[in-house]
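Two quick folds needed for the group meeting slides. Do the first one here.
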Amino acid sequence: MNNILASVHKLYALFVTAACRLQSAFLAIVRVYWGWQIAQNGWGKLHNLAHVTEFFASLNLPAPGPTATFVATFEFLGGILLAIGLFSRIAALGFVIDMTTAYITADREAFLSFFADPGKFYNADPFVFLLVGLLILIFGPGKVSVDTLLQCFVARPTAREATMSAD
């Protein structure tokens, strides 16, 4: 019986190891695909600022013109940053705030139906972008990102620092 349990435990450990190796690839795919989608969304807003400003005014948002410009610019630049994995968690936090605000202002009924009617909540437009923002904010950009590349250069001691610390 102990041999069977040991075998099952060993197989499970192999499975977990294999699944963990997919984490960075999965995060990279999510970042690139949805970062690009958000950047395109921002680009579209930048080229239709009058329409976006009008929509924001209909939602009674304060300063709809500057707000539309800020949101469009943030979505465009933040989407690019997310896609390449640079300042990923900061961009992700921005998208969480942006999409939560979108839920509250433009789709309040869906936002308030989180428990009562979950289908209405997860079928709303901001849902996927909010989910992606939360994924990257919590789990980070993964190993395939500019953030990770920069961390390697920042964390790596120079030859002089290495010899000084050895003394």
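Then this one, please, same format:
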Amino acid sequence: MSETLNEELIAFVEKMPAFPKSVQKVVQLTSDLNASAKDIVQVIESDPVMTIKILKVINSAFYGLPHKITSIQRAVVHIGLNTIKNLALSIAAMGMLSPTNKAKFDTQEFLLHSLSTASICRILAERLGVAKAESSDFFVTGLLHDFGKIVFAEFDPDNFKLALEKSQQENIPLCEAELDFLGISHAEVGKMLVEKWELNPSLAIAIDHHHDNDGDNLLKDCVFAANQISKKMQFGFAGDPIIEEFPDNIVARFELSLDELIVSLGDLSIVKTEALSFINS
């Protein structure tokens, strides 16, 4: 990528929609050790759309709560402030998607893939011993791992369309085709986007390297595995036709191959059902 084009891309990322004020306030409050749960609840409840979507998600089978939660206050008690924050971020991230784009990139299928990957990523984290209260970063990273593609669809739809077509026609990874036509991959741009939103730096690192097979990074490995599972199960589609078999380090992490891990997870149809419910709510 030329220096001029890189500067233009950086400028474009800076112009991408910021989070709503209510979400920014939630992030600010959850980072403040002196902030009370009451303050956070009041901010969320001031945004009816966010409130409805959060309650819908936490009442899904994914969280497995014994009773239906009907208020944000009760939601905080049951799943914690950090999870509430990440759900708010997820809702805001989805709100930045345009229904149509010149690249003809299907954002509904993209969302289904992203949400499915998010849920599976969290399931895998908990399988590996990550506490439920600490696994929300895995959900958010899974959700945002491909959001660099949304930047491409808006920033340079013509070349992104060519990259999508080449990936399909030649059956090659989309990130390789992106390098040919755009000079940068969606993973790198996704990192830029997460940094712009000032999320946890560990999310940016995992997103930047979610197609890499080296290093020892639990978050990255869970995103990689969840991404392949989501593609293999055909839970949505984010433009990449390649389903990568697990390399040695991922097999070692889960002690299973891709197909074996899918079988061991049991019925994953609920993941797709809940994702569709979230999208259509």
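Slide caption for protein two: The domain at 105-281 is CATH 1.10.3210.10 (Hypothetical protein af1432).
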